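Residues pack. One example:


***
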Amino acid sequence: MIGVVSWLATANRSQASSLKFSRTTGNARFDDTDYVGSDACKDCHEDQFKNFSHTSHAKLSTISSWKDKVTGCEACHGPGKAHIAEGDPTKIISFKNKSPKEISETCLSCHAGKEERNNFRRGEHWRNDIGCTDCHSTHSPATGRNVAQSITFVGRANAEKPDFSTLHLLKVGEPQLCMSCHSEVKPDFNKPFHHKVLEGTMKCSDCHNPHGGFELKQTRLATGADAACIKCHADKQGPFTYEHAPLKTEGCAVCHSPHGSANPRLLKFSRVNQLCLTCHSVDHGVGNDEPAGPTHNQNAQYADCTNCHVKIHGSRTSPVFFR
């Protein structure tokens, strides 16, 4: 019995010793001696090394939690010993001929596990072969002077040039980056009433999660249908004693155009009564009859329903949203 215990202890020590001197890159395991460090890459790849050196990835080696992990060039490209010895490009991991999904899997080996990116494989970008490096630049070359080009007050939101970004290794500023593909929404932000995205007051990712999610348009939702809207418009959240049903069943977008509109308050119709009559028809037996009310005069002076129904998003005292 003692001999068996001794043999098991020896075997465990041997296994632990072999694991101690191996590291993992992606799904492959390599020996510690295969890694040569990023400085060895500098001799041939000087421009890439210079661009990489100022990124957050390059600073991982100074963080205590990364002390015994692979950092620098070899964290993504794999061990470089064989590549340096023979100069053979097949002896190093290259991303030139990899698909967006394969590239993204390399990134997710470190960046998965947090709520922000956990659903990337569920998102529209993944399904449409948009990978991490389509938006992010891992080597992140700095171009030009990062000085705001505006005569308006310069705050944190608009302190950078539109074509420049220091956040998350993005290739360009976020609105310009998103609209390079989602060009259909750009005209909305030029309408008279719009969310201030192009002005730099807010950005696309305040409402949408570019890394995927469970909801339509990858909106950032936590509770209820409109958490992304209520995050700023908190007075519309409730709960109310008398709820406006469309707000709870269909959400804010049933009445409002979230990106921009030619109408005040981002409404879908120029006149409030036109919007309300899409549900509340004046013709008895058509549309929403509950709760029933009088057939209102639709002349211009009476056309703004919210002159009387002021608490249209919900009320704590009036079933018809008078107060």
Q: What stands out?
A: The radius of gyration is 29 Å.
